[in-house]
TrEMBL record, chain A:
The gene is Cdo1. Belongs to the cysteine dioxygenase family. It comes from the Eukaryota. Its cofactor is Fe cation; Ni(2+). InterPro entries: CDO_1, RmlC-like_jellyroll, RmlC_Cupin_sf. This is Cysteine dioxygenase. Binds 1 Fe cation per subunit. One of its GO terms (molecular function) is ferrous iron binding. Pathway: Organosulfur biosynthesis; taurine biosynthesis; hypotaurine from L-cysteine: step 1/2. Keywords: Dioxygenase, Iron, Metal-binding, Oxidoreductase, Thioether bond. Its EC number is 1.13.11.20. SUPFAM superfamilies: RmlC-like cupins. Transmembrane segments: none annotated.
From TrEMBL, chain B:
Residues 281-303 are annotated as: Disordered. This is LRC58 protein. Residues 281-293 have a biased composition (Low complexity). Gene3D superfamilies: Ribonuclease Inhibitor (3.80.10.10). The keyword Repeat applies. It comes from the Eukaryota. InterPro entries: Leu-rich_rpt, Leu-rich_rpt_typical-subtyp, LRR_dom_sf, LRR_domain-containing.
Length: 137, 313
């Protein structure tokens, strides 16, 4: 019922390569990338990426949008914490989307941000499947 | 659709005619007894003739499980669609719907309902009568409020409400114990305390009516004018489960925030019979029933804790 993260390769601990599957209307929270490099390539469909500025220390206002764009099939994007935060969404109500993500070094926790207040919240990320096998929580 | 479809492919189970420019689907569909999945997204359906006449009587009405009509031009849900009793999954995403018909409750087997990307302004309470509904998508619409009855969707696991016009939620939303996902972003949810919204003080007739009902004052139709007998029969129970009071026309609406450890505050609308009615989730203790107040607060914090895990950013 949400987008799924499916691990494909863990690069001997140096990186995580995964495939994300987005249903119609599925979107991520605004999140950071825990000091890692993040590459994304669209394999199918389209994904909208909205960039946000980091909120002020004790953020207490609506977060500031920097820019937004729609990434088409085969397009690539890159982000890291010094660039900012982003939200990725499949805004289509008729098509699913699939994206390939490379994170180096790998990370399994990050912060999510409330767009209305800038408050952050640490979360642990999980995989829906790993190497083709369903991961049971 | 080509005539003779059912003669060439009588065993057809899945038919995908998406992206073909189809404006009508006619009687060719009616004689496909094995058809359980019909995908017709991104077409020009929406006018008369989009669905065949006699759909309600065809075997299709019982056999069809999945219907995807997203990306078409439907301005309303065709009544014939509501005859598909066996339907488990319906998508009308990205159409031109302005409302959801109350008769949607006829789709008794529905588990998945996608209505994102329309122009829907309100949700009929009858939607809550779908006993098997697990996944409800209402994102990217123009919805201003959620009816509290929606909390009766006991099977609901996922509720998508992002990008609408909600300023608050009914407090009953905390009753959806099986909910695993809730998306609320992109709604103008109030963040600051909002003074009591409209409260019209009760009329003398209402005050008398409340006393008659709560004190069980006996009366017979011969004792009162017919209009008053009818009036008394319209008493509603106070929405606060801990209050035994009733109200007729006058009820307080009040927004209280449920706080998730200071990280996220959700504005929930409480309906009370009067401003003095002690409500669950109220932080100010007013009456001497301190035990029941703290019980309410425990319920509230358990519900809030559960909701915190469920809320998607």
């Amino acid at each position: 019922f949400r987008y799924t993260r499916n691990l494909v390769d863990n690069g001997n601990g140096k990186f995580n390569l995964m495939i994300l599957c987005w249903g119609e209307g599925h979107g991520s929270s605004i999140h950071d990338h825990t000091d890692s490099h993040c590459f994304m390539k669209i394999l199918q469909g389209n994904l909208k990426e909205t960039l946000f500025e980091w909120p002020e220390k004790k953020g207490n206002g609506e977060m500031a949008k920097k820019s937004e764009r729609v990434l088409r099939e085969n397009q690539c994007a890159y982000i890291n914490d010094s660039i900012g935060l982003h939200r990725v969404e499949n805004i289509s109500h008729t098509e699913t989307a699939v994206s390939l993500h490379l994170y180096s070094p790998p990370f399994d926790t990050c912060n999510t941000f409330d767009q209305r207040t800038g408050h952050k919240h640490k979360v642990t990320m999980t995989f829906y499947s790993q190497y083709g096998e369903r991961t049971v929580c | 659709l080509p005539a003779g479809l059912s003669q060439w492919f009588p065993a057809l189970e899945v038919l995908d005619v998406s992206g073909t420019g189809l404006a009508e689907m006619g009687a060719e569909l009616l004689s496909l007894p094995c058809l359980h999945t019909l995908l017709a997204k991104n077409n020009r359906l929406g006018g008369p003739g989009s669905l065949p006449k006699g759909l309600g009587q065809a075997p299709l009405a019982r056999s069809l499980r999945v219907l995807n009509l997203s990306g078409n031009r439907f301005a309303d849900v065709p009544p014939m669609l509501l005859r598909l009793r066996g339907l488990r999954s319906l998508s009308l995403g990205g159409n031109r719907l302005h409302s959801i018909p109350p008769d949607i409750q006829e789709l008794r087997s529905l588990e998945f309902l996608y209505l994102g990307g329309n122009f829907i302004t309100s949700i009929p309470p009858e939607l809550a009568k779908l006993p098997s509904l697990k996944y409800l998508v209402l994102c990217d619409n123009k919805i201003q409020s959620i009816p509290p009855q929606l909390a009766q969707l006991h099977s609901l696991r996922s509720l998508s409400l992002h990008n609408n016009l909600l300023t608050y939620l009914p407090r009953e939303i905390l009753n959806l114990v099986h909910l695993e996902e809730l998306s609320l972003r992109g709604n103008p949810l109030v963040v600051r305390f909002v003074r009591d919204l409209t409260y019209n003080p009760p009329s003398l007739q209402e005050l008398a009516g409340r006393t008659v009902k709560t004190r069980n004052v006996p009366y017979a139709p011969s004792d009162l004018p017919e209009t008053l007998v009818r009036y008394l029969s319209l008493a509603s129970n106070c929405p606060n489960p801990k209050c035994g009071g009733v109200y007729f026309d006058s009820c307080v609406r009040q927004i209280k925030f449920v706080d998730f450890c200071g990280k996220y505050r959700l504005p929930l609308m409480h309906y009370l019979c009067s401003p003095e009615c002690s409500s669950p989730f109220s932080s100010a203790s007013q009456s001497s029933t301190s035990q029941s107040e703290s019980d309410s607060e425990d319920e509230a914090s358990v519900a809030a804790h559960r909701m915190q895990k469920v809320l998607l950013g």
